[in-house]
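Encode chain A's predicted structure.
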Amino acid sequence: YFLLGAAAFQGNLFKNPKVLQSLKDIFPKALLAMVLLGFSFAIYTVNFPELSMSDLPYQMRRLPDATFGDWLLVVGEKLPGILPRTAALGLLVMAQVIFLLSLFAGRYDKATPLWTSLAANAYGIFILHESLVVWLQFYGVNFELSPILKPLLIFAIAFPSSWVLAKFLRESLYFKRVLG
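Encoded structure for chain A:
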């Protein structure tokens, strides 16, 4: 994704009015594709956890007496369950990128205080969000919430928290050089 995005921006692809109009036009289809793929990914993962989220191949790598052949047999056994989930995840991420491009193409292309703050703090958010997400997930393990609601709640807490923390740290003399 990074290389495709870099190539598109270096080639001024998003300055082409026809490309922007095409992206605007596919917005409803991109939204529908993203929602359907998101639900299919979630439904498969929730209904087939023993197939879609096996960590046995990773556990086998740590066994001292397991051979590479043993590992291949386990991977071959678990791959049919893991592959659909992985393919759905890849398609979901691609649909999210296309949806976001269609959302922002010509709609939100003006500087506002919100976008300016997000742009200024994006690197800090990128660095800080992962630790917040991990700790929130760790803390939320004991809470009984639906598998769809829990990530949304974690996002609703982690994103603004990492934004505020990044903004606060950027104003500090010690972190200003690192976070911009």
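The mean pLDDT is 82.
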